[in-house]
Amino acid sequence: MIGFSHAPRRRSAAAAVATAACLLVGQAQPAFAYLKFGVMAGDQQVTLKWVQTPVQYFVSDIGVPGVSSSDFEAAVGRAFGTWQAVPTASIAYQFGGITSALPLEDDGRSTLGFLPRPDLDRVLASTNFLVDDATGALVEADIFFNTSFQWSVAPGGENGKYDLETIALHEIGHLSGLGHSAIGETELLPNGGRRVIAAEAVMFPIAFPAGTVTGRALKPDDVAGISDIYPDGDFSSATGSISGRVTKGGEGLFGAHVVAFELATGHLIANVTLNDQGQFSIAGLTPGPHIIRVEPLDDADLDSYFDTSITTVDLDFRVSFLDRLVVAPRGGDSGAIEIKVAPK
Amino acid sequence: MIGMRHRVASAVCAIYCAAAGASTAHAQAPGDRGRYEIGGGVTWTGHTSLGTAAATETSPSGRFTLFSTSTEVRASAGIDVRFGVRVTPAFEVEAATSYTRPRLETAVSGDVEGAPSLIASESVRQYTADGAIVWNLLRRRTGGNTTPFVLAGAGYVRALHEGETLAASGQRYFAGGGLKYLLMSRPHGLKGIGVRGDARVLAQRKGLAFDNRVHVTPTIGASLFVAF
């Protein structure tokens, strides 16, 4: 029985941003592969996920200049289809219909639509969850797209307008339970915002500049993440994981970004250390040798990844590589490795 | 224990008798050093480049390189054992197996955030099982003690990554040649003891190579053999 009365709406995972960071306030969950949302169910922390699929979603009947409600429906439908097409993940989605309801209404329906939010001048879109406190299961997830920005559904994108399908793809990742990925490079702007130089995950917290459509395809890190939450087929037996600790001066390091580079495929898949022992686990890796790179989590605001009111992330260490190749075995784990980093 | 020794001795005797019988059944050339040959020795395989790869991310203008890598299997020495059967005066078929411990090394460089370049490596255990056809050449002209030969064959390679966490298998093909030199010979029983050296060109696919390309590398070997 879902205890709605005990399931407060949590303004956790936000999403892609205009120029600067933000979003995501989900607590990272220790001892799990991939950065996922963790919620408390009773006295236990569990992964935020849909218990039953297909996940039914509704689309608000409000359009904006250049994007009619039917355009909106088609664009988000394509984005849902992209996630559903991941062969190693079992999650499925179902269009429930057009609704006059708006996102963020606690009506038991997951609704996607436009909302005017001029107060959020750096937030393109946001995902908000309704969670069953007893089980940690997702009950409802609404996504709003901020009408303060200009939107486009043009196949090749439009200058000065954000691609709706790209941003929807990111938000639907949140709706499905994924947190932010840190596989991306940014530079600081004079106004305090950040410009994305490159990213290799749809779930990177900062959007590419308006007019680009490069974010319509999932990357290996996204596929590993969704497959880790909803494994299907031979995902668990056909892929491997690498786990271990990141230490500085012999002490575990919280919040280090650990990236595995697959020599066989060229894929980048990553996670962060999620406790004070500096432990991490990267799942969904192609079996074979990997290069391991560790870097500070400094390409987006920290609250894109963690609830910084309760955690302290150590950024004072140098980017470094592990001096050995680490093999992800098929259907197993590498065994604990230790990566030692030095202060800056 | 005594019974076991007896059975072993009987088996050796049976092989010897069978060999002797086969030897007389074939019309072999004068100076022939027996129908069977067992050898063992050392082998050396040159390094194999597995190519370069860059860790890249998507940018609005194309690919953005995070760092670059270059991977190779280092040259390694190992041991091998082989068994050959002469099927005609000139041709032998042989089966061989080898064991080596090469290192897989990846040089990492050009990190966009200035991480020091380094070489990441692991030790690998590699086993091979091959079959080959050996063509013995010019035996009479070299006075009977030295036999040049050419050979070609194919086989299977199995590599165990460090910690034996993952096995990778592949195919290998080779061609080459060498010399056999008889140190001693006699007409009956153990017909000869000699040394053999060979050089080959080895083409290997898969195994430690994580692409589908064929990688070519030289390999040489030296061994001691007995003929009977």
Features:
heterodimer; A: 344 residues; mainly beta; Collagenase (Catalytic Domain); Immunoglobulin-like; 2 domains; 6-stranded mixed sheet; 5-stranded antiparallel sheet; 22 strands; B: 228 residues; Porin; 4-stranded antiparallel sheet; 12 strands; elongated; disordered N terminus
Quick take:
With 344 residues, chain A is mostly beta strands.
As for the number of domains of chain A, it is 2
Please provide the ordered H/E string of secondary-structure elements of chain A. Answer: EEEEEHEEEEEEHEEHHEEEEEEEEE
Report the sheet with the most strands of chain A, covering strand number, pairing sense and barrel closure. Answer: 6 strands, mixed
CATH level 1 name of the largest domain in chain A: Alpha Beta
| Structural class based on helices, strands and sheet pairing of chain A | mainly beta
Question: What name is given to the CATH topology of chain B?
Answer: Porin
| Helix/strand/pairing category of chain B | mainly beta
- Identify the biggest protein-protein contact and residues per side: A-B, 42 and 37 residues
Element order, helices and strands of chain B?
A: HEEEEEEEEEEEE
The largest sheet of chain B, given as strand count, sense and whether it forms a barrel, is:
8 strands, antiparallel, barrel
Task: Indicate the radius of gyration of chain A in whole angstroms.
Answer: 19 Å
> What low-confidence regions of chain B span 5 or more consecutive residues with pLDDT below 50?
1-31
Shape of chain B: elongated
Q: What would CATH call the homologous superfamily of the largest domain in chain A?
A: Collagenase (Catalytic Domain)
Work out the helix count of chain A: 4
Widest β-sheet, arrangement of strands of chain B: 1-4-5-8-9-10-11-12
Shape of chain A: globular
- Number of helical runs of chain B? 1
Radius of gyration from the alpha-carbon trace of chain B, in angstroms: 23 Å
**Structure summary, number of beta strands of chain B:** 12
Gap between N and C termini of chain A: 52 Å
